[in-house]
Design goal:
single chain, elongated, mainly alpha
Amino acid sequence: MIEATWGLIIFIIGIALVFDFTNGFHDSANSISTVVSTKVLSPGNAVVFAAFFNFISAFAFGVAVASTISKIIQTANVPIEVIPYIILASLIGAISWNLITWYFGLPTSSSHALIGGLVGAGISAIGIAAIKWSTVGLVVMFMVISPLVGLACGFLFMVVVLNLTRKTNKSTADSYFKRLQLFSAAAYSFSHGTNDAQKTMGIILPLLYSIGYYGAGVDPNNLPVPMWVILIAHAAIALGTLCGGWRIVKTMGYKITKLRPVHGFAAETAGAGTILGASALGIPVSTTHIICTSIMGVGTTMGASAVKWGIARTIALAWILTIPLAALIGFVAFAVIRVFIGY
């Protein structure tokens, strides 16, 4: 078998940063769709705004999510020389699914694509023993819970806001909420960085472990995150956000429901609160799922007919398919890699 070298590890870290970039590119819509659709910021200003807050989140909320992601592959059960190739195959699966769904304008989860890729590649390498299923189960459980929390928070927060402003003139309220939406958009972009950038950190850690970066005596189940890994992960996701994913902005900002500044403020605030809570607990959630359902929750305060449920069903189907199809691509990718490395 061809053993991994530092050159290969650096190459795979580069691919991981490409994934991080596509995560920011794909998920930029989550951060900016509401402020663009409500005309609070121009698209150009919105992406710069979102990228800045994605990056500065590197200095808050610790690395609990990265730790969770780093444990999906059972390093104790996997030959150390195989780990880099599992990571490479998982990244191929995740990036491929990101690009497919970007092309069709579907706001799916980059996080779930990565987890699906890890599962598929790990099983392809050595079977089900490669995967820590309790961690995958946690992710799948919150795949269901977190969108429901986002939906409920969006609805309830919007109800509170409407009650507080019921005597306010519509144009006056819009003027106030256009300003407030800058704060809510900043909070959402910040929360996005606290969760999604850490996922790339989490797959870099096993790579470093496989090449002996940590030296002897390190616990593979509690790998420390070097500061340089934190900074490059946040820089890559911020750069991806700068490039934007305008197909998905259109779906998020215009097709789910019609938004005014007050609705954008409520959706972003509810989404940010949900994601920050998950990040503090070390739970890797889909920021895409949460902002989508927060927008839906806000929309339902205008009546069920205000939400275009046909679009919502299409998005939900893409959510369901993400982990299994990314896993399939990851499985096939490792099978191809196996031929070239003689494993």
